[in-house]
Amino acid sequence: MADDGADDGADDGAGGLDRFLPMATSTRAGAEVLFCAPLGDDADGRYVADRLRAERIAVLHLPRPGPATDTSLLLVATDGENCIVTSGACADALPVGHAEAFAARCRPGDVLLMQGNLSQAATEAAARTGRSCGARVVLNTAPLRWPVQPTLADCWGAVANAVEAEGITGR
Q: Angle CA(136)–CA(140)–CA(142) in degrees, nearest 5?
C-alpha cells in the first residue's frame, strides 16, 4: 500500500495511518511514547508495523493474536458526525493479559490513551491497571460496541462523538 499523495478522497492506507496516529506528533516533539496495537500476520499487518517502526516510538508492542489485521472505513454522515465501519476481530482477540501488561508500564503522570476497539475485558483491565499505576486514563469510546460506563470509572477522561455521548449518558 502506498498513498499517492493526491487529494482525491481515496486513500489506500498510508495517509490514513498518518492521520490515525496522533502520537507521531508527540514522538517528533520528543515525548516518550509507548504503543500497543494487535496486528494480523498478513500484508496489511506488516505494512502497518513497518510504518510504525519508522517513528521514534520508545516501546512498540505489536502482538499477533491470530485474526487478520483490522480494517476501518471512516464515513461522514449528512449531519457531520463520523461513522466508522470496522472489522474488529484482531483487536478483539488481544488477550487481557497483554493489555494489562502493557498498561502496567505506566508511571504516575503518564497518559494511557485507549481506543474502544479492544474487547470489554481487555479495555477494563488496562484501564484499571493504568489507573492503579498513577496514569491518567483516557478512553476514545469509538467504536461504541459494549457498555463503557463501568470502564469510565477508571478513566480521567473520554473522547466521544455526539452519538457515542448519547449512548453513554442517555441524553
A: 165
Q: Which amino acid is it at 25?
A: T
Q: How far apart are CA 75 and CA 48, in angstroms?
A: 21
C-alpha cell at 100: 494489562
Confidence of residue 134 (pLDDT cuts 50, 70, 90): very high
pTM of the model: 0.80
Residues 6+ apart with CB under 8 A from 50: none
Decide if 23 contacts 35 (C-beta within 8 A). yes
How many helices (H) and strands (E) would you count in the chain?
A: 8, 7
State the alpha helices, DSSP H only, in the chain: 14-20, 23-28, 43-53, 89-92, 96-103, 120-132, 149-152, 162-169
Note the pLDDT tens digit of each residue in 54-100.
888 888 889 998 999 988 888 888 988 777 788 889 999 999 999 99
